[in-house]
C-alpha cells in the first residue's frame, strides 16, 4: 500500500507525461539536445519521486538518501534548462559565459545536500540566480519577438506557481490538495507548456547562431 498515495500518483503522472514528451521534442531547434536532456532528467526525477512518496518515505535512511539524489537531479535539470535557453536565444558561442554560474550553483547545492539540507528551499536559494538568468533571457527574447518567448515565460510562470503551492504554507489548500500533489500537477501543466514553447521555436537564435543544430 502506498504511503502517500496522491503524491506518489501525481509524481508518477508527471514522470510519464514528461517521458512521453522527450522523443517528441523537435530536433531542428538550437539547443535541441539540451532540451531533451532537461526533459529526460525531469522525467527520471519524477519517476523516482513516485517511488519515494509511495514506498521509500516510510524508510527514513533510504528515503533521506533518495530525496538528496532527487533534489540534486533537479539542479541538473536546471543546468540543462539554462544551457538550452542560452543556446536557443543567444547561440552556441555565448553558452560558455554561463557555465561558471552553473558550476557555482551546483557546487553550492552539493554542499547543502552533503550536509543534510537538500530540498526545495535549498534549490530555490542556490538556483535563484540561475532561474533569474533564464527568465531574463526569455524576457529579452520575447521583447525581440522570438517565436517561443511569450509561451516560454508562461510555462516558467506556471512552474514557479506550482513550486509556490509547495513552499507557501496553506497555499495548496486553495486547490484542495496536499502541497506535494499540488506541486506535481502544476509541474505537469508547466512541462506541457514548456514542450509547446520549445516546439514553437525556430532554428535561428537571435544572435550568434552556431554552425549547426545542437
Automatic annotation (TrEMBL):
Q: Which domain of life is it from?
A: Bacteria
Pfam families under this entry?
DUF6962
Write out the transmembrane intervals. 34-55, 67-89, 96-114, 120-143, 150-169
Which InterPro entries does this UniProt record tie to the protein?
Answer: DUF6962
What keywords tag this UniProt record?
Membrane, Transmembrane, Transmembrane helix
What protein does this entry describe?
Uncharacterized protein
Amino acid at each position: 500500500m502506498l504511503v502517500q498515495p496522491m503524491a506518489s500518483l501525481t509524481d508518477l503522472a508527471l514522470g510519464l507525461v514528461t517521458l512521453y514528451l522527450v522523443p517528441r521534442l523537435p530536433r531542428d531547434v538550437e539547443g535541441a539536445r539540451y532540451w531533451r536532456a532537461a526533459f529526460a532528467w525531469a522525467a527520471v526525477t519524477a519517476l523516482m519521486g513516485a517511488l519515494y512518496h509511495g514506498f521509500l518515505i516510510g524508510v527514513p535512511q533510504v528515503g533521506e538518501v533518495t530525496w538528496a539524489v532527487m533534489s540534486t537531479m533537479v539542479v541538473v535539470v536546471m543546468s540543462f534548462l539554462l544551457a538550452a535557453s542560452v543556446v536557443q536565444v543567444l547561440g552556441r558561442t555565448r553558452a560558455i559565459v554561463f557555465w561558471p554560474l552553473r558550476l557555482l550553483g551546483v557546487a553550492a547545492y552539493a554542499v547543502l545536500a552533503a550536509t543534510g539540507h537538500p530540498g526545495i528551499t535549498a534549490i530555490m536559494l542556490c538556483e535563484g540566480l540561475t532561474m533569474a538568468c533564464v527568465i531574463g533571457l526569455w524576457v529579452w527574447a520575447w521583447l525581440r519577438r522570438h517565436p517561443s518567448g511569450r509561451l516560454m515565460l508562461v510555462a516558467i510562470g506556471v512552474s514557479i506557481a506550482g513550486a509556490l503551492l509547495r513552499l507557501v504554507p496553506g497555499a495548496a489548500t486553495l486547490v484542495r490538495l496536499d502541497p506535494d500533489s499540488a506541486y506535481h500537477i502544476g509541474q505537469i501543466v508547466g512541462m506541457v507548456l514548456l514542450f509547446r514553447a520549445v516546439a514553437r521555436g525556430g532554428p535561428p537564435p537571435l544572435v550568434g547562431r552556431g554552425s549547426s543544430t545542437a
